[in-house]
Amino acid sequence: MKAKFSDVILYVQNVKNLRKFYVENFDFKVLEEDDIWVLLNAGSVNIGFHKIGEKYLKSIDPNHQFDNNTKIVFEIDIDIESARKELISKGVSMREIKTFENYDFMLCDGTDSEGNVFQLKAKKTTSI
């Protein structure tokens, strides 16, 4: 069997907030949406946000941010420092820029409105 990665789906509290976050900050295009679901095109992979089932939502504080072991990585084509500053100016929580020895990319982690971790990744030739 040959498989091709096409979509990643995260179960979330507020689909509309995450739709707004990723459309406004990364200019992703909406492919599908309804009250409990949105699918965004993020280049070669689509990102879906699906509302958590009601029985789980009832036991969660609405302001709770989830801890998880997933990180969504976005390769960008602009200076990473400029991208980081732009997101910070919009109130997005961003960590410091970092890299590793013998690695061709600069990296910077941030969190979306529900605490999901994302990473910006830029070639060192187009970054600081």
Give a brief description.
With 128 residues, this protein is an alpha/beta fold. Helices cover 20% and strands 38% of the residues.
Describe the structure.
The protein is an alpha/beta fold and 128 residues long. The chain has 2 domains: 1-60, 2,3-Dihydroxybiphenyl 1,2-Dioxygenase, domain 1; 67-128, 2,3-Dihydroxybiphenyl 1,2-Dioxygenase, domain 1 (Roll). The chain is built from 3 helices and 8 strands, in the order E-H-E-E-E-H-E-H-E-E-E. The strands form 2 sheets. Strands 1-4-3-2 form a 4-stranded mixed β-sheet, with helices on one face. Strands 5-8-7-6 form a 4-stranded mixed β-sheet, with helices on one face. A hairpin with a 4-residue loop joins strand 3 (37-41) and strand 4 (46-51).
Topology of this structure?
Layout: E1 7-12, H1 15-26, E2 29-34, E3 37-41, E4 46-51, H2 54-57, E5 71-75, H3 80-89, E6 93-98, E7 105-111, E8 117-123
Domain count: the total is: 2
Structural class: alpha/beta
* % residues in beta strands: 35-45%
| Number of separate strands | 8
Write the H/E string, N to C.
Answer: EHEEEHEHEEE
CATH topology of the largest domain: 2,3-Dihydroxybiphenyl 1,2-Dioxygenase, domain 1
Q: Could you tell me the mean pLDDT?
A: 88
Overall CATH class of the largest domain? Alpha Beta
Distance between the termini: 42 Å
Identify the strand order in the major beta sheet: 1-4-3-2
Distinct helical segment count: 3
Low-confidence stretches: none
**Helix coverage percent of residues?**
10-25%
